[in-house]
């Protein structure tokens, strides 16, 4: 299997998505949600100043937890399409260089391969190769280019964000405890859960 995302149209995405979010505020308003995080609470300003520091010191320390979480939920959802919002078409040359500067060698090759081979105006891509999970996750954990992942089998949307605080959206309230358990298995939390 080629290690490349496969573009799909907006219409294809709309026909298979389980959680209909056009923007993050709409997600918070219409879906049960929480924040996937390394902490069980939103940090106070004092805690942020003490703990966060730089991406290199803070984010990389916890990155593997997010990769393992994403791999686990990928495998639980792989029988139905998994879609990633990846605005590759919007990255300019300076942005490409910035991304390349902070990726590991193999991920640099994967990124270059996508830049060279994905001549699509689409922002929606089918993720059908587990080997791409670390690459996609690192783009968000390293705050290089935030991606949103849409899982369909046990519906969940994970929205890449700053400071390893990724909003998550659930279609069914019953799925919250299911994903909370997986988060805890990976030393993560789904905090600040709001049921809609």
What's this entry about, in short?
With 196 residues, the protein is α+β, with helices and mostly antiparallel strands. Helix content is 44%, strand content 18%. It has one domain (6-194).
Helix content: 40-55%
How many domain units? 1
Rounded Rg: 16 Å
Estimated structural class:
alpha+beta
Question: What multimeric state do the chains show?
Answer: single chain
| Dominant shape | globular
Q: Approximately what portion of the residues adopt beta-strand conformation?
A: 15-25%
Strand order of the largest sheet: 1-4-3-5-6-7-2-8
User: If you average the pLDDT, what whole number results?
Assistant: 92
In N-to-C order, the SSE pattern is: EHHEHHEHHEHEEEHE
Largest sheet: 8 strands, antiparallel
Separate helix tally: 8
Overall strand count = 8
Low-confidence stretches: none
Query: What distance lies between the first and last C-alpha atoms, to the nearest angstrom?
Result: 39 Å
Overview of the structural elements:
- By secondary structure, this protein is of the alpha+beta class.
- It has one domain (6-194).
- It contains eight helices and eight strands; from the N terminus they run βααβααβααβαβββαβ.
- A hairpin with a 6-residue loop joins β6 and β7.
- α4 runs antiparallel to α7 (133-141).
């Amino acid at each position: 299997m080629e290690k490349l995302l496969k573009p799909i149209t907006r219409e294809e995405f709309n026909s298979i998505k389980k959680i209909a979010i056009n923007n993050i505020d709409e997600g918070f308003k219409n879906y049960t949600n929480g924040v996937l995080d390394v902490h069980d609470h939103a940090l106070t300003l004092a805690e942020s100043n003490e703990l966060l520091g730089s991406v290199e010191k803070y984010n990389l320390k916890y990155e593997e937890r997010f990769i393992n979480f994403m791999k686990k939920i990928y495998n639980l959802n792989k029988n139905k399409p998994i879609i990633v919002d990846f605005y590759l078409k919007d990255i300019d040359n300076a942005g490409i260089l910035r991304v390349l500067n902070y990726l590991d060698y193999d991920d640099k090759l994967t990124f270059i391969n996508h830049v060279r081979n994905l001549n699509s105006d689409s922002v929606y891509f089918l993720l059908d190769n587990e080997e791409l999970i670390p690459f996609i996750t690192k783009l968000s954990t390293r705050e290089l280019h935030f991606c949103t992942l849409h899982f369909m089998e046990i519906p969940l949307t994970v929205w890449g964000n700053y400071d390893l605080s990724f909003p998550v959206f659930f279609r069914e309230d019953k799925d919250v405890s299911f994903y909370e358990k997986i988060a805890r298995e990976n030393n993560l939390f789904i905090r600040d859960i709001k049921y809609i």
